[in-house]
Amino acid sequence: MMGNQPTQDHATRAEVFNRDEARVDWHDKTLWFIRQKRDRAAWTIPDWEALRDQASAIKDNVLSNLHDYLISFEAQAQRNGVVVHWAADAEEHNEIVHQILKRHQVSKIVKSKSMLTEECRLNEYLHDHGVEVVDTDLGERIVQLAGEPPSHIVLPCIHWKKEEIGALFHKHLGTPEGNADPTFLTAAARTHLRQSFMSSKVAITGVNFGVAETGEIVVCTNEGNADLGVQLADVHIACMGIEKLIPERKHLSVFLRLLARSATGQPITTYSSHFRKPRPGQEMHIVLVDNGRSERMKHHSFKNALKCIRCGACMNTCPVYRRSGGHSYNYAIAGPIGSILAPSLDMKQYADLPFASTLCGSCSNVCPVKINIHEQLYQWRQVIVQAGYVSKQKEVGIAAMTAVLSRPWLYRYAGNVGRWFLKTFPTLASNKINPWAKQREMPAPPSQSFRRWYQDNRKKK
Amino acid sequence: MSRDKMLLAIREALPKEATAIPDYQPSATSFDVVQKFIDTLVGIGGAVIKVSSLSVVNDYVIKHFSGQRVVSLVQGVDSYATTLEADPHLLENVALTVVPGAFGVAENGAVWITDGSMGDRALPFIANNLAMIISAQDIVPTLHEAYQRIGADGYNFGTFIAGPSKTADIEQSLVLGAHGPKSNTIFLLA
Amino acid sequence: MDYFLSGSNFGYLLKRTIFDRNSVMKVGLFIPCYVDQFYPKVAIATLELLERLGIDVYYPVNQTCCGQPMANAGFEHLSDKNNKLFIHNFTGFDYIVSPSGSCSLHIKDHLHTRGDDSAAAAIRSRVMELTEFLTDVVQVRSLTSRFHFKVGLHQSCHGQRGLAIAQMSELVAKPFSKSESLLKMVGGLELISLDRKDECCGFGGTFCISEEAVSVKMGKDRIADHIQHDADFITGSDMSCLMHLDGILRRQKSKVRVVHIAEILNAQ
């Protein structure tokens, strides 16, 4: 869905996405297919639920020892010959990266997938400072060529059809017009990106896990783009949120068993690379980023979101995400997990996201680290309303509803209550027309309420 | 300096009591590890060839890669290289590399290798095809046993490789050979 | 307080289940506000079904709403009066039974009072959705009801994932479904299978209004799954989901109808 006008909120953007129903069906089925692969992969491990419990418990331990683990991680990494940087926020992170690039006088770098750099908008920052970033994950490269953010954290161009990618490659890479064969297009991208790998002095990667015990970091990819970038570069910069730490190397077994199975239904990603020391002659940097994480840790209701290992399973299972598309969330991390992460960065801007859910709870059930996502969505709604970030109309409507429903006599006498209800409920939306009736018939009010029936038929006995 | 500021903020955010990590004993597996390894790896696009000796591997390499650049890190398999170019970019024309794997993992088809046995860290990623040799005895059931086996090993770089480089980014169509090797063959010595 | 004994005239004539220690048990019937207003027949079926099983059921007539619509919209802080009213109406029962998984879950998770919370806590631990009450407390093993149709079960999310009325497709665990087990006791009923057995229908409280486009699309997809498998009826234990699906079905002029599970279990 290219060239959408920037619009107001999730509902509006979702409505635009839904104007092409066949495309919604295609998007939904593609993601459901991945959810099914995830289910099959989970069922290969009989004690899957115990494994999730353990992953969650390890992350609890991390969040309650993070201070010490970070100090240990830093000391070990330094002993390994790694330069460790600390960035309190996105801006500082971007500056640190830029300073390293400046020192090495490079104007073009390769970067493998990192949601943290998306969160910090590193690409834009470096672009403004004269550095071209080439995203080397195929999906990320596709959306980058199209001038879009990823619509999914694991499957960045899941919203693109192959014909559109063929046209995009024709324009940017000079592939023959009309060729939309995935194998052909992937080969074209391989050739195109190989040039960047061969010429880049600096490679940036994200971090899936950092091990406090050993100071090593683990990066997982299927394409091998992180490894190829790093192993051919003079400088490796790994950008890492502080919550990515785990206590010991052996704990990787728990997380690597869960990660790919939850993400795509694979038993493991093709490459799970453990970077402990730089290659002789190579520089390795790790940038530790806070950017709101320590603040979130103080929030009892919301700190569990920091357990996230970015598998994307909650997006694939989310019935709303599947039918509204990643861009409808207007945040680097879409879907249920994005909807509980974004408001802590900017509650006003992302006030709509916790409402973009039916609270069905499927997200919490697939989450490999057992984040109570749907409960946090509910909690965010309370926080956002109390902070005053909902429409006046909704506020008035709800207040009226509460007034009636907390007074039995008013409830009873609110005219024909059924009709009152029918009139009140739909006005909670900002739209003037009744949104219920746009594509649905209204329920027909019966001749009498149950209460009336009960009094006629039971009370007399 | 943000380091101290960050650490202070994190310390303030910690709960009063740290939670402990419960003991975790993964349930025992009942599958045949060798068969499971083969099935899993084939299922993710890899290939497994059972061999009785290294000379069979050697024959295979000669038969399929004659006239192309082969870098073998296994003595007894052509073309055994004791030293490589200092610049990893020069490895780009390698058609096949043969690397000794440390061990395999049955549940996911991965093979663990470390920098000590890969010649150059770039080699397993830049070569067009990757072959690894492991002994059938060196297959563990799951990642739990894998990390027990790795223990406190002091590798500088280590990686699990499971199958060929791949992507499904275009409409979920699986394509092998995204950026790294287009094929992944495991020679299983038994 | 308006409590009226209602079960004594009905229950005795009918086949009793193994449940027979109900002489002292008092059950409060909790009817969601929109069921009271739009679907009295669902409430009647629930009442009659419980009476048929020999249970003493009381309907506190001053009840209004559990407060969920407001709370899910982010206004839980306004629910204090509503909560007090609920506690006032439902204190003193052994069980509070409702033909709604969603409203039961809301009470179970969110009924609180400032200060002394003991009355609210008592209610939280006693509220049950109808099919879980029939399965776990009454332990119904057979039913006399008949319903000669092909029926698809829409397993509503709050009952399923919140109250664990059925195994969830996301979890690696043994399958079970309290609603399905009950439906299988109904004579003549053919339970169809679905491609996505526990996908949300898109109702979601105020979501159905504020996210109209996605809500309706989810509903249409849910319906298509049932129609594709030849359902005559879509049933479930939440009338709110069914109201949403019914609105779409009627707009589509479909022959498929919705029916609450209480109506099927009570159909003679």
From TrEMBL, chain B:
* Occurrences of domain LUD (ranges): 98-188
Top-level taxon of origin: Bacteria
UniProt xrefs under InterPro entries: FTHF_cligase-like_sf, LUD_dom, NagB/RpiA_transferase-like
What PANTHER family does the record tag this protein with? Answer: LACTATE UTILIZATION PROTEIN C
Q: What is this protein called?
A: Lactate utilization protein B/C
Q: What is the native source organism of this protein?
A: Pseudochryseolinea flava
